[in-house]
Amino acid sequence: MSQAEHRAIRLNQTGGPEVLELHTVATPEPGAGEIRVRHAAIGLNFIDIYQRDGLYPLTFPTGLGLEAAGVVEAVGDGVTRFAPGDRVAYANGPVGAYADTHVVPADRAVTVPQDVDLTTAAAALLKGMTAEMLLRRVFHVQQGHVVLAHAAAGGVGLILTQWAKALGATVIGTVGDEAKAELALANGCDHVILYDREDVAARVREITDGQGVEVVYDSVGAATLEASLASLKRRGMLVSFGNASGPVPPIAPLRLSRGGSLYLTRPTLFDYVATVEELDASAKALFDVIRSGEVKVRIGQTFPLERVADAHRALQGRATTGSTLLIP
């Protein structure tokens, strides 16, 4: 393979992990306002699965992946934000991060501080900026709040629970097994509920002396909707931000009224980092909390790029903990 070529995952249709194919493709030059990044590590996220299986539509043929960290290899005309050799990460596209290199708009990448390694940046940026959005802007978690986080041992979950704890909240997490329960308890959770064995809402009421929680962070979707709503205190907020078990079905507004004048929101990170200023502020908050030691990023498993299908199967089958990385 020459320097003018690189490896990239491509797909021609929606489907299961088997539609992900490794190809050797021409390495593009960055256009005006763009940079080319040589990847050190690539982040794997549930949004990749939603795009692969068609829940979030893509135009085919296409690459996949929104998040990676590495070193700037080349810059296009007009780029002053970065120079070749800079350490950068990006987490909101365009799709195509599952590759040795990728061309992205300069204003969608952020500088990685020297004391944060590139694998940590790739493992943390999308999940960590999601956690920052959820905790600091979608719902402003404060000292004394009680929060419920589903999938507490997952990539977003482990960052979110540690950060929520650092903000002074009491944190309840749901997990699927004992090993994940131990992990969650070691990463910010004050209480853990095994969702397959316990009535989540009943346990939440027990833990909170019948009050419920101020906010539920729910990335699971259809399977947890009712438990999430039933866990909220009066005027509480359900933040639905994922569909791991399938999309949430339509909800009648009266369901929110009858549950105690509840709030429901379905945020996406891209609307919270829409400007360069918002992107830089979110990334800075994340890197600062990592550097402080209040949030430790757990890389639960890594896969070589050519085993991306196995990585997808593991993530989709809830067989992962923490962040999952592809290594070029």
Automatic annotation (TrEMBL):
<dbReference type="InterPro" id="IPR002364">
    <property type="entry name" value="Quin_OxRdtase/zeta-crystal_CS"/>
</dbReference>
<dbReference type="InterPro" id="IPR013154">
    <property type="entry name" value="ADH-like_N"/>
</dbReference>
<dbReference type="InterPro" id="IPR011032">
    <property type="entry name" value="GroES-like_sf"/>
</dbReference>
<dbReference type="InterPro" id="IPR020843">
    <property type="entry name" value="ER"/>
</dbReference>
<dbReference type="InterPro" id="IPR036291">
    <property type="entry name" value="NAD(P)-bd_dom_sf"/>
</dbReference>
<feature type="domain" description="Enoyl reductase (ER)">
    <location>
        <begin position="15"/>
        <end position="326"/>
    </location>
</feature>
<dbReference type="InterPro" id="IPR047618">
    <property type="entry name" value="QOR-like"/>
</dbReference>
<dbReference type="InterPro" id="IPR013149">
    <property type="entry name" value="ADH-like_C"/>
</dbReference>
<keyword id="KW-0560">Oxidoreductase</keyword>
<keyword id="KW-0521">NADP</keyword>
<protein>
    <submittedName>
        <fullName>Quinone oxidoreductase</fullName>
    </submittedName>
</protein>
<dbReference type="Pfam" id="PF00107">
    <property type="entry name" value="ADH_zinc_N"/>
</dbReference>
<dbReference type="Pfam" id="PF08240">
    <property type="entry name" value="ADH_N"/>
</dbReference>
